[in-house]
């Protein structure tokens, strides 16, 4: 496979999802909510579950939340460094005919998706720390992914980049936890 083939497929998949925008007000609301509101809901639910799980020993809960925030910050810095190297513009810059439903903060930073990295990092952390109902986070993460493409700010490969970084950070965390328990 050539890079050109992958990028063409990436653009086609993006437009398959993004062309659904502005066709139905309820679908627009769903896509917008996934892009903008699902992630804060995930973060609040994650923090609440961590604190509820550690009700007997609040210090453990706060340490998990601080460690989670540190891991997220690491992912965010990693995303930013990769973005500085890759310098991929958002779809609406490259393809003015796309449907842009939100105004992104930065137009130069498309790859990797910070929202996707954050959403899936929350999913992996919920599983690693054994939160009850951890599986609930995954549909929300998929909603975030759909929303980011639907509103016109990310290509599918941007999403894969964010998912990869979240998975690598979670794998590193699991390795560190396993080594510290030996």
Structure keywords:
182 residues; mainly alpha; 8 helices
- Strand % is under 5%
Helix content: over 70%
| End-to-end C-alpha gap | 43 Å
Overall geometry comes to: globular
Given this structure, which CATH class of the domain at 71-181 is correct? Mainly Alpha
In the predicted model, the low-confidence regions spanning at least 5 consecutive residues are: none
Instruction: Summarize model confidence as the mean pLDDT.
Output: 93
How many helices in DSSP terms? 8
Tell me about the biggest sheet? none
Rg calculated over all Cα atoms: 17 Å
H/E element order: HHHHHHHH
> What is the subunit arrangement here?
single chain
Structural class estimated from helices and strands = mainly alpha
CATH topology of the domain at 71-181: Vanadium-containing Chloroperoxidase, domain 1
Total beta strand runs: 0
Task: Describe, in plain words, how this protein is organized in 3D.
It is built from 8 helices and no strands. With 182 residues, it is mainly α. It has a domain at 71-181: Phosphatidic acid phosphatase type 2/haloperoxidase (Vanadium-containing Chloroperoxidase, domain 1), CATH 1.20.144.10. The model has no long low-confidence stretch (mean pLDDT 93).
């Amino acid at each position: 496979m050539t890079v050109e083939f992958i990028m063409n497929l990436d653009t086609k998949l993006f437009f398959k999802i993004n062309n659904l925008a502005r066709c139905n007000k309820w679908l627009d609301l769903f896509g917008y909510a996934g892009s903008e509101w699902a992630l804060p809901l995930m973060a609040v639910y994650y923090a609440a579950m961590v604190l509820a799980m550690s009700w007997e020993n609040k210090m453990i809960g706060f340490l998990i939340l601080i460690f989670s925030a540190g891991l997220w910050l690491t992912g965010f810095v990693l995303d930013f460094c990769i973005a500085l190297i890759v310098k991929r513009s958002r779809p609406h810059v490259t393809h003015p005919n796309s449907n842009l439903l939100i105004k992104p903060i930065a137009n130069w930073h498309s790859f990797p998706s910070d929202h996707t990295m954050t959403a899936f990092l929350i999913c992996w952390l919920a599983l690693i720390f054994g939160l009850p109902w951890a599986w609930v986070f995954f549909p929300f993460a998929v909603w975030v992914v759909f929303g980011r493409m639907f509103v016109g700010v990310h290509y599918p490969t941007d999403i894969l980049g964010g998912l990869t970084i979240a998975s690598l950070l979670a794998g590193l965390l699991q390795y560190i936890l396993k080594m510290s328990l030996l």
